[in-house]
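The instructor's notes for this session suggest beginning with a concrete chain rather than abstract definitions. Hand out the sequence below and ask the class to guess, before any prediction is shown, which regions might be ordered.
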Amino acid sequence: MNRRFTLAGTAVLAASALTLTACSSSGGKQQEQSSSGDAGQADTPSMTVAMITHQAPGDTFWDIIRKGAEAAAKKDNVQLEYTNDPDATKQAQLVQAAIDKKVDGIAVTSPNTGALGPVIKKAVAAGIPVTMFNTGGPEAMGLGAIGYFGQTEADAGQAVGKRVADAGGKNVICVIQEQGQSQLEARCDGVAKGAAGAKVERVYVNGRDDSNVTTTIQAKLTQDKSIDWVVTLGAPFALDAVKSIAGAGSSAKLGTFDTNKELVDAVKQGKVQWAVDQQPYLQGYLAVDALWLFKTNGNTIGGGQNVATGPAFIDSANIDKVAQFAANGTR
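After discussion, reveal the predicted structure:
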């Protein structure tokens, strides 16, 4: 694993998450919006930050990112406006809406640089500072972002593949929940590279439909009893895969990217061997805090390089330490 991806320390959790205040609908898909209110701890003037992600409906991973973002917003006297759409074209339209509104800063994910790159550059050209997080790391600085916070997906995938191979994995399926997102493909590319010598096959599921995820994985495991490892790319899909393994009567082991409270419980119970933690709370927090630091003091974080928030493995050895934070919805 690249030394840049060794976690050098821990961030201080700043403030409790704020109550979500509003929801709106656009283009037939729900767009959520939240505000941090006026009670910031900083004595700097209030500023507005738009956070725009590719969150799909029902994906609880993003709840953790939002808690981090809202904690930073409360500390920094920031009005946080959160919107999301898993369709990259529609996500780009949300970025354009933030530009038109002349917000003070934009924090954005970029799962499809072809669709989002031009509008991110447009925001920068309009004088709006942009941070990027979670996805789009390889392109972030070239697009003009003042910082990127996340993990390199290929390196994280390679670490996963090596762990599977070290555990004796020979026939692995890597489950992708959303087609067309480059970071998910990069994860599976990394798994295949890290598990050199093992068979690694991609299985595509509809991540917006739990029953589809469960039945598709179960069918694959029923068809091929030699599959000995399942790797999922998000906590909700790992929980679906637990049902699939049981339903197929399979002996396959299960590892996943990302966590939530329920996933932590599954690791405790031995149903999931381990999870890769990219620290989403930290990603959301830093994406907002970096904009505040830039606007109020001209600071940038990372020295022109991406800031690594992961990967780190959560397993039976450290799960009890993580569980107390997962119970708060911050891991």
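Then share the key points. The chain has a mean pLDDT of 89. The CA atoms of residues 174 and 202 lie 5 Å apart.
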